[in-house]
Design goal:
about 260 residues, single chain, mainly alpha
Length: about 260
């Protein structure tokens, strides 16, 4: 009889997961627990569970950060054989944790490797929020250890935004799952950003951001955040206003206007 099926039959997925996480904390059982964790993740994959289902069955009250990292491992494994579509891990995490709680986890953890994935997701969340540094500091700083981490996150967001300004990467898009959507108009707009046709430009960036999100597990961008970072708020407002007169993208432009 194998150990994991016996434990799962006796205690269920949730309690078995807690037992494995607890066993990983003790040197004498850590290696066995690590193997069991890998086996449990494989079991969930074979059972056809998706990231949201696994998130719901896990108990995040015990070893929250370890539980999150275990969920990350499942998500990475899951999307090796499933199309990512519009899945955004930070939205799932926010069903259970606020951004300030996630920041506190990052601040308390001594080993930076243990929070690397979580930190990346928080940076992307801050980028998509489009909030000012002052607003973010007001929400997340606690006057203590959090301040150092929050400032570090904001510096990372600044660098991240600078990298976004260099997009789009045409080569990446040509190799994407959405390559069949690449009309000559879209490729022209992404290369030359012709402001004489704002409707086509917005549509081109929509295709690009969709493709980028599918290929980048942790980097789930919103179109509006990318546009504002790339062109600035005032120019995006002008682009949306212009695109609203284009029958082909009118509804899309109005949706962007509502988001803005």
């Amino acid at each position: 009889m194998k150990l994991l099926p016996a434990l799962t039959a006796r205690f269920g997925d949730r309690d078995t997961s807690i037992m494995i996480l607890a066993a990983k904390m003790h040197p004498e059982t850590a290696k066995v627990a690590e193997l069991l964790e890998i086996e449990q993740i494989e079991h969930w994959i074979k059972a056809g569970k998706n990231p949201d289902q696994v998130f719901e069955l896990m108990d995040f009250d015990f070893q929250s950060l370890s539980s999150i990292n275990k969920w990350f491992c499942f998500v990475d494994k899951y999307f090796l054989s499933h199309e990512r579509l519009s899945f955004n891990p930070i939205l799932t995490l926010e069903k259970r944790f606020s951004i300030s709680e996630l920041v506190r986890m990052i601040a308390k953890e001594r080993n930076p490797n243990n929070v690397e994935g979580l930190k990346e997701l928080v940076i992307h969340s801050l980028f998509n929020s489009m909030q000012s540094n002052l607003c973010v500091l007001g929400q997340l700083s606690d006057g203590g250890q959090n301040n150092v981490i929050v400032n570090s996150l904001l510096n990372s967001r600044k660098q991240f935004s600078e990298n976004i300004k260099k997009l789009p990467d045409i080569t990446m898009l040509e190799n994407s799952l959405d390559s069949e959507l690449l009309t000559s108009d879209i490729m022209y707009q992404l290369k030359f950003k012709d402001r004489a046709h704002d409707g086509l430009l917005l549509n081109a960036y929509d295709v690009y951001v969709s493709a980028y999100n599918k290929q980048s597990p942790a980097a789930h961008f919103t179109l509006l955040a990318v546009l504002i970072t790339r062109f600035g708020s005032n120019e995006v407002l002008k682009m949306i206003y212009s695109a609203k007169s284009d029958l082909v993208v009118m509804k899309f432009a109005k949706h962007l206007e509502d988001d803005q």
